[in-house]
Design a protein that fits this description.
Elements: H1 6-51, H2 61-65, E1 67-68, E2 76-77, H3 87-109, H4 113-118, H5 135-155, H6 163-176, H7 178-182, H8 187-193, H9 196-208, H10 223-266, H11 276-306
Antiparallel strand pairs: 1-2
Helix pairs in contact: 3-5, 3-9, 5-6, 9-10, 10-11
């Protein structure tokens, strides 16, 4: 190897003195980059965690319309949940209270109440009490109500606490009432089933006319308010038991018999009446499930009350539901 010249030696020394400085600078940049990267990762993680929806359990339907123990969600307390002002929900409730009135009234106008109240003549039954004089108007108003309410919930889902449940219910109802529109022999079934809207009206009234969440049997509220709350509560429970727990299961057998009669008449198992059987069965199961949840929650409450246990958030009650 040829000896290095003075110029080469001088250049080599300059390079050797420059490399450590470059390495230090590069190391400083790398360290600063790692710090910035870790800071960005931490910030991203924090933003993502704060924007992510909270992991909360799905509320049961009974929690939406009844006051529950904050420590035991299966325990229903007297009264209704306390509601703050909520414009989308309040407007939707007001719409239902107004729109359900013509649905109920027109349904009432399609029945022979002399026969219903004073007993059936010989060889007569509930289908014979159906006159159907106002069925076309009744059907049009009912369909309009469910379509408007369905679109309302889809467009403004925060107007209710369980929009998916309401949407599924309204779609099933619209499918169900197709059967009496096509087949006149079961129009009385629609009238009997739509009587459940009486209970729906009182269900909404419990919330609208008692936003403070007073238990119906408290002693320390104004007299007129007490009478109003008691009346709505009594009508709600009477209509719940009579319609959801008695009429709906009773109608299930009639719906099945209508399908059997249509099958014998047409010779086909699949006919228009078959659509009503599974839908009515689903409504019966839901009604019985909600009734069971409500009854068991009341039983748990009475047991704890009898045992003298203090329930958080409970008001003074004298008796009753």
């Amino acid at each position: 190897m040829a000896p290095r010249t003075s110029d080469q030696q001088e250049l080599l020394e300059k390079l050797n003195s420059t490399v450590p400085t470059f390495a230090i600078r590069n190391e400083n940049k790398s360290s600063r980059f790692e710090k910035e990267n870790s800071r960005f990762a931490a910030l991203t993680k924090r933003n993502r965690s704060s924007s992510a929806p909270p992991t909360t359990r799905r509320k049961r339907l009974i929690e939406e319309h009844f006051r529950v123990d904050p420590l035991d969600k299966k325990l229903v307390l007297p009264g209704v949940p306390k509601h703050e002002d909520d414009w989308p929900r309040d407007l939707h409730d007001f719409f239902n209270l107004v729109a359900l009135v013509p649905v109920v009234v027109l349904n009432v106008m399609n029945w022979n109440w002399d026969m219903l109240l004073h007993g059936f003549p010989k060889n007569k039954s509930i289908p014979d009490a159906w006159t159907g004089e106002w069925f076309e108007v009744f059907f049009a108003v009912t369909v309009t109500y469910f379509l408007v309410d369905l679109c309302w919930v889809i467009l403004i889902p925060k107007c209710v606490k369980s929009p998916l449940t309401i949407i599924q219910h309204h779609i099933a109802t619209l499918l169900y009432i197709v059967v009496p529109f096509v087949w006149q022999d079961c129009r009385w079934v629609m009238g009997a089933c739509m009587s459940v809207e009486i209970n729906t009206w009182f269900l909404i009234s419990r919330r609208v006319f008692n936003k403070q969440g007073f238990p119906p049997w408290t002693l320390d509220i104004p007299y007129l308010i007490s009478i109003r709350i008691k009346l709505i509560s009594v009508c709600f429970y009477l209509s719940w038991i009579s319609i959801r727990c008695i009429i709906y299961p009773y109608l299930l057998w009639d719906v099945i018999m209508l399908w059997v009669g249509q099958r014998e008449k047409t010779g086909r198992i699949i006919n228009i009446a078959l659509l009503a059987v599974p839908l009515h069965m689903c409504f019966c199961i839901l009604n019985l499930k909600w009734s069971y949840d409500l009854l068991m929650s009341k039983v748990r409450y009475w047991k704890r009350l009898k045992a003298g246990k203090v329930i958080p958030g409970e008001r003074t009650v004298d008796k009753g539901l």
